[in-house]
Amino acid sequence: MAERWATLGIDLHLEPTGPGLRRGLTDALREAVRSGRLAPGTRLPSSRALAADLGIARNTVADAYADLVAEGWLTARQGSGTRVATGAPATPARQREPGTVPPAGTAVRTHARARGRPAYDLRPGTPDLASFPRAEWLRAARRALAAAPYHALDYGDPRGRPELRAALAGYLSRARGVRADPERIVVCAGFAHALRLLGTVLRARGARTVAVESYGLDVHRDLLTDAGLATTPLPFDALGTDPAGLSGADAVLLTPAHQFPMGVPLHRDRRTAVLDRARRTGALVLEDDYDGEFRYDRQPVGALQGLDPDRVAYLGTASKSLAPGLRLAWAVLPRDLAGEVAAAKGGIDTCGALDQLTLAEFLTSGAYDRHVRAARLRYRRRRDALVAAVAARAPQARITGIAAGLHVLLRLPPGSEQSVVQAANWRGLALHGLARYRNPAARVEPLDALVVGYGTPPDHAWTGALDALCAALPG
Amino acid sequence: MAERWATLGIDLHLEPTGPGLRRGLTDALREAVRSGRLAPGTRLPSSRALAADLGIARNTVADAYADLVAEGWLTARQGSGTRVATGAPATPARQREPGTVPPAGTAVRTHARARGRPAYDLRPGTPDLASFPRAEWLRAARRALAAAPYHALDYGDPRGRPELRAALAGYLSRARGVRADPERIVVCAGFAHALRLLGTVLRARGARTVAVESYGLDVHRDLLTDAGLATTPLPFDALGTDPAGLSGADAVLLTPAHQFPMGVPLHRDRRTAVLDRARRTGALVLEDDYDGEFRYDRQPVGALQGLDPDRVAYLGTASKSLAPGLRLAWAVLPRDLAGEVAAAKGGIDTCGALDQLTLAEFLTSGAYDRHVRAARLRYRRRRDALVAAVAARAPQARITGIAAGLHVLLRLPPGSEQSVVQAANWRGLALHGLARYRNPAARVEPLDALVVGYGTPPDHAWTGALDALCAALPG
Known about the structure:
- By secondary structure, chain A is of the alpha/beta class.
- Chain A has 3 domains: 2-113, Arc Repressor Mutant, subunit A; 121-131 and 370-472, Aspartate Aminotransferase, domain 1 (Alpha-Beta Complex); 134-368, Aspartate Aminotransferase, domain 2.
- Chain A is built from 15 helices and 17 strands.
- In chain A, helix 7 (162-176) packs across helix 12 (353-364) and helix 8 packs across helix 11 (335-344).
- Chain A is globular and about 80 Å long.
- At the A-B interface, helix 6, helix 7, helix 8 and helix 12 of A face helix 6, helix 7, helix 8 and helix 12 of B.
């Protein structure tokens, strides 16, 4: 039954604007009754449960239910909840008998496709946005705005609000071992913004080449290329990225705590080797610490920056721990770079002051820690379910990189990656193969694998997504 | 008395972070008593009044008062309010007798200077930030966040949230006569961001030169120069900017509704001439509508864009109507440009989703209109007070550009601009002369004048700022 509601939940995910949300929900429920997907007599989830499921306000659901009761599609009775009316206005028709459950995902997929979003999504790179702590965030916003002096709303320091830089310095030092002085922090509108600024500054300093990992995001390489820099891939082996090829590069972009997408931490010998080589060649290390908050089975891997703050530019983000929509990231920079990166922002702050003040309050009040702890538990449960389901239903597949982060690498039999991704797509499951993350210039053996972002789906779609994944895997 | 509190208010403006605000306020009040600036027996403003004056939460003031009562610096008695204790812990000393009022602004100035902000500020470019509608904004944020689907917190459309673009299209069409299709709107992190993006796109299209006004902001010209474009000034006369010199330019940057800083609208013949010439030469008009909301004595001047949406890029901002700290502006672009400008943002939205959703809700709920109406009344009263005070106390000065906006031009006797600005600075009043807004390449007669931003001070500092201005003017 839970799964059925999950399906219902997804089917109702329209692209609603504020006032259109209630109408969209009403239309979708009405259509579900009319088409027979919701059989007469079916009990609907409580407005509270469906609202939580959909990540919307309870009132919106209650209002939609009330509209449909008024229209005769639903009935509401004390003690019996809200049910589909037995004599609903328009009798169901179409392809199916009323009361039968459609094949999992069928209607959903069609519907979602029409709106450009997949029914299920296990692509990496996004946390579960339905669990964004809306109420806590609003409370922090209220406190932050009450405490802020009026000039906090003026044009700001291009490095970002001092309240946020101070809060980040404390947090990063405590949680990630970063040596963070607020003067050396620059708040940016996301990791991509920070990388673009750093690329511009490095190029202006005369840099020509940035070494990158054999596996990574093409958009990051493109940002560097757009800044006028060439990228060159470093070798990758069982210990992680090998800095042997670093000579000749002016900088190196790494994900040391949790290689993206391979999921392994940089081996401790390699950590030392990277810094040694960078010191010898004068290269700057760009440390992408995108999901450093999420560790499950092992000791946290501290930031590389803590070992050499004048050689490493540390880059963190709220996109994985909270939501990409906040557009908030931070760079902790060697002293001489901080001013140049701030100047490259155009001399004024580019991030909204209110969100910055709110995040500062969120950090200093402990709400951030509480949120990360809760999210860590939730993601860990999902990861355990994923590992168990794959072991049971697709024993040929092998999962690696499970100790941290919001994604795993699911290794497949040779030659099967593309067909598995296709099979998943046909089931309404958006999925990424490893191929798209392989730097085309890298000399690494092709490896068939999926990069499974188990953090992505909202709770109500998680089980369905996992089922669709297992069904697509070779048995 | 009112002025004395105003002085107190300014003196208390520290740079507090959230939890530090109460302590900062307590320290400042204690110091004011210790130094004798607050004489024994002096009645303090109510916590409500001081909180409003300082733009902070009432509880913060009440808590600070309570701390100081507990410490014996203040006394609180039902019916008699909060007063400075007669036997305060440390007896006042320093240079002044206890109980005397310091020369207006003296202590304030020193204090503020040490913290890098002037006691009084009549520089143009910022609205009264203390009147930012905090409570209404938070209410809108709560409604917006309750209504938003969870995927509104994901990486977004580089043009900005659809809710905000739809709301802006409605508002700009109604209030500014802009022909605005949401598909052609790109939300940006402030006007400077929008201008920088447009500069980049124009340069990539092969543009070389942008015509600018004889008077304007150097930072805007610099943004264009940074994008690789040359700027060339257009003549300026009694009808405003003369587009005669437009040939040869690929684009022209104008403030047609309210020339900045001269304060006049572009004459209607010139409006037509600009568009005629732009059509003939293929130039793009960049319309900077920075304060289009604020009209007092005349019919609103509609946006030029309404006359030729395929020839004009309209640029608006929340920086004057709400606050620069929001970092929200919007470009309404010719169809072919919208995609290119969005791509120049790096393919992802650069503005926080929550602020965008909140502004959308603020616009559609009518809160924006209410706020602008109230602000317009307040600024109009200030403008009337300014005109009256200058007429009474500095009859030699002549004020122009009073019909709209948040600043006026105050014409001075020839040769006196620099000395007046200096005299004002010595009184703790930050003030800008016209000279800094004159394009060095422009062939215009030097004109001695002040650009007085009467919108800038918070209410509690307005009277003091006006007094300081009048005192600095030649009598």
